[in-house]
TrEMBL record:
It is found in: Postsynaptic cell membrane. It is a multi-pass membrane protein. GO terms for cellular component: postsynaptic membrane. Keywords: Cell membrane, Disulfide bond, Glycoprotein, Ion channel, Ion transport, Ligand-gated ion channel, Membrane, Postsynaptic cell membrane, Receptor, Signal, Synapse, Transmembrane, Transmembrane helix, Transport. Residues 56-112 form the Ionotropic glutamate receptor L-glutamate and glycine-binding domain. GO terms for molecular function: ligand-gated monoatomic ion channel activity; signaling receptor activity. Pfam families: Lig_chan, Lig_chan-Glu_bd. Receptor for glutamate that functions as a ligand-gated ion channel in the central nervous system and plays an important role in excitatory synaptic transmission. L-glutamate acts as an excitatory neurotransmitter at many synapses in the central nervous system. Belongs to the glutamate-gated ion channel (TC 1.A.10.1) family. Disulfide bonds join 347-400. L-glutamate binds at residues 121, 123, 128, 288-289, 335. The keyword Signal applies. It comes from Sinocyclocheilus anshuiensis. This is Glutamate receptor.
Length: 481
């Protein structure tokens, strides 16, 4: 308990002593002076806050409570300067009005004066707004569907055939293809076994033919002529090995991904859910989600409500709904933010993309409470400062990262071994072609009694020229003569 001295001016006040007790538990002792001023000494008690156990909003940690709502309450207390004491709602309900007009749950405790605030994932609805005061929403949510991954299939995309490999792997394969073709072209020019007489013979391994040859090997098809030199065969064998391993990984990953998505049922939203009778579905009994379907004029939503009423497929808690969805053949309909948390904690579950009935979670105060506006302003300030987004990231952190990585596309680093083998094979092939050319140059230099370096330089100059117009012209002139 702490003291707070307030001085206010009211011209119509008479001298006297007044004791005021507000509906927020604030006791004020006021002395009214003749001058019209009023000195009030306010003894402010702890606010009684009711909440409900729900992960991650409010959870037990030993003798204390923690969670998103507890962190939010702490931030609001710092901004508005009040003390509080939290207790869990006695009947374990959020708040529903019965036929006689009485409220249960947290809403009922606030209405009866047993609590000053209700801080929990309470949906802002018209019926609740009539009975209690509700602040600006601190979180936006909607209604969606929670299902197990292996009982639904998603619509196939046009480029799903690329999914076995990641973008980095496909880029690496493309680079390897062009580098290999260039190496085949170089070896075809340097090796004397492939091109013995560059002055008179045409070169079969042009860049265009090398690209075609590498593409044929990649598709397990031959495209002649084939290399005759040892250097060319080393590169060719290495590229064939690379192609076989690459295709084996591709078809293995493609078949496994198609096998996991082979379920015939496809549920993308509530229309699909209402038009099938294979999967059972339900929602939380007495929740605002159930009231949404009950009061809706949409034919599909009405069919969903009538099905749930007829089958009595309701659950008593969020945990029960998640557990039934995990067991299979059951779709749980609930708040999208709660379903996102279930997906983050249970890697075998997935939430449908469609979200309907957008609404917000609010803090509940007694009707006409003077703290309602201050709480709303504080919530907007926290939102603008990014505090609410930080709390959402903190308590909705996913634990499915290791599991999701198992079924992800093959990345370049997972195939680095075969890329390394290809690089070594290309290097050995180019070195062997240089060795073959050097051996021929040394032999020619011995016959012509010239320097080996001069002969090697001349050979490289002739073989690395893109065209042989001069040699072709001389050959033509000799034939004419």
């Amino acid at each position: 308990m702490f003291l707070n001295v307030l001085i206010c001016k009211q011209p119509d006040c008479l001298f006297g002593l007044q004791v005021r007790i507000s509906n927020m538990g604030i006791v004020s002792l006021c002395i009214v002076l003749l001058l019209g001023s009023e000195i009030c000494i306010a003894a402010r008690q702890e606010l009684i806050v009711t909440s409900i156990k729900q992960d991650p909003y409010t959870m037990s940690k030993g003798l204390q409570l923690e969670g998103y709502c507890m962190d939010l309450l702490t931030e609001l207390a710092k901004k508005l300067g009040f003390k509080y004491k939290v207790h869990l709602v006695k009947d374990g309900a959020y708040g529903r009005q019965d036929e006689s007009g009485n409220w249960n749950g947290m809403i009922g405790e606030v209405v009866r004066g047993e609590a000053d605030l209700a801080v929990a994932p309470l949906t802002l609805t018209a019926a609740r707004e009539k009975a209690v005061g509700m602040t600006k929403p601190y979180m936006q949510t909607g209604i969606s569907i929670l299902l197990r991954k292996d009982i639904v299939s998603e619509e196939a995309g046009f480029f799903d055939f690329l999914s076995p490999f990641s973008g980095e792997t496909w880029f690496g394969v493309l680079i390897a293809y062009f580098v290999t073709a260039v190496c085949i072209c170089i070896v075809g020019r340097l090796s004397p076994c492939e091109w013995s007489q560059p002055e008179t013979e045409p070169n079969h391994f042009t860049l265009l033919h090398s690209l075609w040859y590498a593409a044929g090997a990649l598709s397990l098809q031959g495209a002649g002529p084939h290399p005759k030199a040892v250097s060319g065969r080393v590169i060719s064998c290495t590229w064939w090995l690379f192609a076989v391993v690459l295709l084996a990984c591709y078809f293995s990953s493609l078949s496994s991904s198609q096998g996991s998505d082979s379920a015939p049922l496809m549920i993308k939203g509530f229309e699909d859910l209402a038009n099938q009778d294979v999967i059972e579905y339900g929602t939380l009994a007495g929740s605002s989600t159930l009231a949404f379907f009950k009061n809706s004029n949409n034919p599909s939503y009405r069919r969903i409500y009538e099905h749930m009423e007829r089958r009595k497929s309701f659950v008593s808690s969020m945990d029960e709904g998640v557990q039934r969805a995990k067991e299979g053949n059951y779709a749980f309909i609930g708040e999208s933010v709660s379903l996102d948390l279930a997906v983050a904690r249970h890697c075998d579950l997935v939430r449908a993309h469609e979200v309907i009935g957008m609404r917000g979670y609010s803090i509940v105060t007694p009707l006409g409470s003077p703290m309602l506006k201050n709480l709303s302003v504080a919530i907007l300030q926290l939102s603008e400062a990014g505090e609410l987004a930080y709390l959402r990231t903190k308590w909705w952190a996913s634990s499915c990262i290791p599991d999701s990585a198992k079924g992800s596309s093959l990345r370049a680093h997972s195939m680095k071994g075969i890329f390394l083998v290809l690089a070594i094979g290309l290097g050995i092939g180019v070195l062997l072609s240089l060795f073959e050319l050097t051996s021929k140059s040394r032999s020619t230099a011995g016959e012509q009694k010239k320097s080996c370096c001069a002969v090697l330089t001349q050979e490289l100059s002739q073989r690395l020229r893109m065209t042989n117009t001069k040699g072709d012209q001389e050959t033509s002139d000799k034939n004419k003569a």
